[in-house]
Amino acid sequence: MDFKQLLSSIKNKDFKPVYILHGEEPYFIDKIAEAIEEFALEEHERDFNQTIVYGRDADLLSLISELKGYPMMAERRLVVLREAQDFKQVEQLESYVENILETTILVVCYKYKTIDARKKFLKESSKKGVVFKSEKIREYQLPDWIVNYLKAKGFMISSKATMLLAENVGNDLSRLVNEIDKLSLLVEKGTTINEVHIEENIGISKDYNVYELTNALAKLDITKANKIVHYFNQNPKAADLTNIVSNLFKFFTQLMRVHFAQNKSREFIANSLKVHPFVAGELIQAAGKFAPKKIAANIEILYEFDLKSKGVNSNNVPQGELMQELTYRLLH
Question: Which class does domain 139-201 fall in?
């Protein structure tokens, strides 16, 4: 069962006696747990029938005692184990799951890592209820995720604005959703969100960011690239060298793959590189400006500056100067 299906079943009050929510992406785990808390019990039922325990403070015997309690003047009880990754005895809940009480809903929120699928605890839980693995959204999936999230809220978004959000916020979904929700309160529903909306309401400069620096380098626009690097030097919080190197390494690696792709159509490049079609189009154009030999040399330069960004062989040179040197060498 995927995230949307699971939320739908919860809102329809189709509850299972156990939900094991585990994985690297905490956003989906939090949303599912919040939905269960909202719909499992009525407001007046919660004082006597809802228990929330944190993994670090949990005691196995006390937790099982809570799970085996019967509801008071309600159809069910709800026991939520938050931050379950801090509860070292989580797998010992297997004995309870084997003899589960149907009038209790157990929700286990196990974040940032997964429980071994071979464990009997997980296998038994999947028979009796729901085991949901919360996986990180991959970078290539992020633009579509942003578009769909905004569409569900009644907004459209331009391709450039989508890439601006994806590149600058990344796949930290909790932070990304927070920024989008804030924006949706400030912009009229039905609006097509563009880079100006993002700059004015989220604070990401539409002209001076890592995405625009990459674009400037892709077009061999020395003047624009230098302006952006100068802005970064004056505004250290806007970007750091490690992030710049990482993004440019990905860009030049993709360019090399475009060069040697048998099919250079936008659709083929988008599918093979797992990027948004808008990005695929920009990569195809940029590939015509860089010979494979120069791309290979730039990748080598980026390896060098990756070490320098981490303090290796940098001789305490300020980041602003390193950015200027990097930009010069990539373009000449």
Answer: mainly alpha
Q: Which residue has the tokens 């909202």?
A: 38
Give the global pTM.
Answer: 0.74
Q: What is the fold of 3-134?
A: Rossmann fold (3.40.50)
Following CA atoms 160, 161, 167, 173 in sequence, which dihedral angle do they give, to the nearest 10 degrees?
A: -140
Phi, psi (degrees; rounded to nearest 5) at 270:
-60, -45
Q: Are 301 and 329 in contact (CB under 8 A)?
A: yes
pLDDT for residue 316: 77
pLDDT at 8: 95
Dist CA 269 CA 278 (whole Å): 11
Under CATH, which architecture does the 210-331 domain have? Up-down Bundle (1.20)
Can you say whether the dihedral through the CA atoms of 33, 35, 40, 42 is positive or negative? positive
CB 128 within 8 A of CB 100: yes
Output the pLDDT for position 209.
86
C-alpha distances (whole Å) from 221 to each of 168, 301, 327 are: 21, 19, 11
Domain boundaries, the chain: 3-134, 139-201, 210-331
